[in-house]
Structures are given as structure tokens and as C-alpha cells.
Design brief:
Helix content: 25-40%
Protein name: GCN5-related N-acetyltransferase
Strand content: 25-35%
Oligomer: single chain
GO molecular function: acyltransferase activity, transferring groups other than amino-acyl groups
CATH class of one domain: Alpha Beta
Shape: globular
CATH superfamily of one domain: Gcn5-related N-acetyltransferase (GNAT)
Distance between the termini: 37 Å
Largest sheet: 7 strands, mixed
Keywords: Transferase
Organism: Albidiferax ferrireducens (strain ATCC BAA-621 / DSM 15236 / T118) (Rhodoferax ferrireducens)
């Protein structure tokens, strides 16, 4: 039986402190290359690139208990939002929460006017790759500057149109 998730957009300094705590937990537990990750810059500059109108953060709770988070932000490519920092705490994994967070971020990026949702992850992150492909993401060119060739880049058209939004779709 799937748990009932409550997904909440954040905007206050207190909310961003909660997000920061989850990012630190994520970096300590699940981050593949913490030494070279942009997560540290993100943490220092919160809300930074995750603030509206170019970004958003969603916190997930289950029964009032903090269960996970996710965010999106603008990229250097017009019309493309990168979904980032999807993290689910151990006790809440395998219940569909990563899917719910990702779907919520896709929806919010669409509502914000983005034409494409993009994700990048490590090639050995097979569970995440399977989820993203189930949600309709397909391979695209790198949307990072400079290109991070060791990562897998996926994109999902959001039904919006705008300049330069489909140039990365394979």
C-alpha cells in the first residue's frame, strides 16, 4: 500500500533551513562525487537558484514526518528546467515518493513556463534512470556548461514552446 505523501512548496527562511538539512543528509549518504558536486555552493547560497521565479523546492512529509525533497532550477539553456536534489530518506524509500516528487517538479516547471524538464545522473544510478525513463524522459545532449560527459542527460518536453527549448532533445 502506497503511503500518503504531502508535498509542499517552500519559500520561508525556516523552510530553506529544513531543505538545507536534507541536502546535507543527501550529500553524506547518497551523493556520488561529493568533492566535486555543486551541492556545496547550493547550500551556501540558499535559496539561490532554487528561488522563484526560476526555481522551486518541494518538501515531502508522510504522517507529519519529513520524508524527502526535490527541486528544479533554470539552466543556461532558455526554456529548460533542471530537476535536482530528489532525495528520499531511507525509511520512506520504495513507496513511490521519488516518483511523486519528480512528477510534482515536472508539473511545477510546466506551470512556471518551462518547455523542457531535464535531469542528469550517473550511469550506474539504474533505479533513478528506470524511474525517469518510465516518466517519459529520453536522452538529450548535455545542458551543463561545461559538458559533464560522465553523466547521463535526459529530457522531457513539457508542452510549452519558446526560443531554444528543443535544441537539446535527441
Amino acid at each position: 500500500m502506497q503511503a500518503l505523501f504531502q508535498l509542499t512548496n517552500i519559500s520561508t527562511p525556516a523552510d530553506y533551513e529544513i531543505f538545507k538539512g536534507l541536502l546535507l543528509e543527501y550529500a553524506a549518504r547518497d551523493l556520488d562525487d561529493p568533492k566535486n558536486s555543486t551541492i556545496w555552493k547550493d547550500i551556501e547560497q540558499l535559496p539561490g537558484r532554487y528561488a522563484a521565479p526560476v526555481g522551486a523546492v518541494v518538501l515531502a512529509t508522510v504522517g507529519g514526518e519529513l520524508a524527502g525533497c526535490g527541486a528544479y532550477t533554470a539552466t543556461a539553456h532558455s526554456g529548460i528546467a533542471e530537476i535536482k536534489r530528489v532525495y528520499v530518506r531511507d525509511g520512506f524509500r520504495r513507496q513511490g515518493l521519488a516518483r511523486a516528487l519528480t512528477q510534482a517538479l515536472i508539473s511545477r516547471a510546466r506551470q512556471a513556463g518551462y518547455a523542457t524538464a531535464a535531469i542528469c545522473t550517473w550511469s550506474h544510478n539504474t533505479q533513478a534512470l528506470a524511474l525517469y525513463q518510465q516518466l517519459g524522459f529520453t536522452p538529450i545532449s548535455s545542458f551543463r556548461e561545461p559538458s559533464k560527459a560522465h553523466l547521463v542527460f535526459l529530457g522531457l518536453p513539457l508542452g510549452q514552446s519558446g526560443p531554444d527549448t528543443n535544441t537539446l532533445l535527441a
